[in-house]
């Protein structure tokens, strides 16, 4: 079994590295596309600019080329988020969870702001030591995945249908103890890939998904692209449909579901339902 799986893992890594290299090349070309040589005298400086790889992208290439692991999401899943980042970056990108793909997300949002929220402090320390450039905040959750059914029922109450700042919400699913930056930033893209919520262990993503829905709907203007990973699991599937809304689903790829959520504050009718 080992002899068969080893080549498979190597091939997977080679595929990912090839894919990631092409992404990096694309980002570099796009970021330099605004530079146009005006005359002969500007030609040398133009060349020197184009030949430089941005530090964040160079770090990513080295990191993944020398690593024995590959990111949690497969190529088709990563491609869906990349497509959105191509249109929106540089942007504000909020990611729930630190993983082997964190440096990749920060790099693909080149020149934007990518923020990671992680509840495992030991893991955070280790990642910060390896990649100090990442912007990471420690968070905590006070739920248990075994409360999922109870919380889903509570989410049907009227107070949970009010689109407000999570900090002033009366809904028991609203998380109010995140760092201020989470509530005070207009997020363009949000990835929900944490906290832990498998095998009946961990806090689960019930409250996280609900709170993300509030952040997106209470945004001052525009739309928020939200990605929820692990939708093959009951909590991720049920809660994302209930609180991010079926009507806002754009597509699914593998274990990833993509929502495009408009601001409810800019919709003309004040009677806009929580889910249309």
From TrEMBL:
Subcellular location: Golgi apparatus membrane
Principal location: Golgi
GO terms (BP aspect): xylan biosynthetic process
Transmembrane segments: none
Keyword Transmembrane helix: yes
Sorted UniProt keywords: Membrane, Transmembrane, Transmembrane helix
UniProt keyword annotation of Transmembrane present: yes
Matches recorded under InterPro entries: IRX15/GXM/AGM (IPR006514)
Gene Ontology CC annotation, any one: Golgi membrane
Membrane topology, from the record: Single-pass membrane protein
Superkingdom of origin organism: Eukaryota
Protein name according to UniProt: Polysaccharide biosynthesis domain-containing protein
Native source organism of the sequence: Fraxinus pennsylvanica
């Amino acid at each position: 079994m080992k002899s068969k799986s080893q080549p498979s893992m190597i091939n997977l890594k080679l595929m990912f590295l090839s894919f990631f290299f092409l992404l990096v090349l694309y980002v570099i070309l796009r970021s330099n596309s605004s530079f146009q040589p005006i005359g002969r005298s500007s030609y040398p400086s133009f060349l020197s600019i184009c030949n430089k790889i941005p530090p964040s992208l160079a770090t990513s290439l080295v990191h993944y080329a020398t690593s024995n692991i590959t990111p949690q999401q497969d190529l088709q899943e990563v491609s869906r988020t990349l497509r959105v980042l191509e249109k929106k970056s540089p942007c504000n990108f909020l990611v729930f969870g630190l993983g082997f793909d964190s440096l990749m997300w920060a790099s693909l949002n080149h020149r934007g702001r990518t923020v990671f929220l992680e509840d495992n402090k030991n893991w955070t320390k280790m990642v910060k030591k390896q990649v100090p450039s990442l912007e990471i905040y420690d968070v905590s959750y006070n739920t248990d995945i075994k409360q999922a059914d109870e919380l889903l029922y509570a989410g049907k109450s009227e107070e949970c249908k009010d689109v407000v700042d999570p900090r002033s919400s009366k809904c028991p699913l609203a998380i109010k103890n995140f760092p201020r930056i989470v509530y005070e930033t207009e997020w363009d893209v949000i990835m929900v890939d944490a906290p832990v919520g498998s095998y009946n262990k961990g806090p689960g993503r019930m409250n996280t998904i609900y709170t993300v829905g509030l952040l997106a709907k209470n945004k001052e203007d525009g739309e928020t692209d939200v990605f929820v990973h692990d939708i093959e699991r009951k909590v991720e599937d049920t809660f994302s449909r209930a609180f991010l809304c079926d009507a806002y689903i754009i597509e699914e790829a593998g274990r990833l579901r993509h929502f495009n959520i408009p601001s409810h504050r800019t919709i003309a009718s004040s009677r806009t339902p929580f889910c249309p």
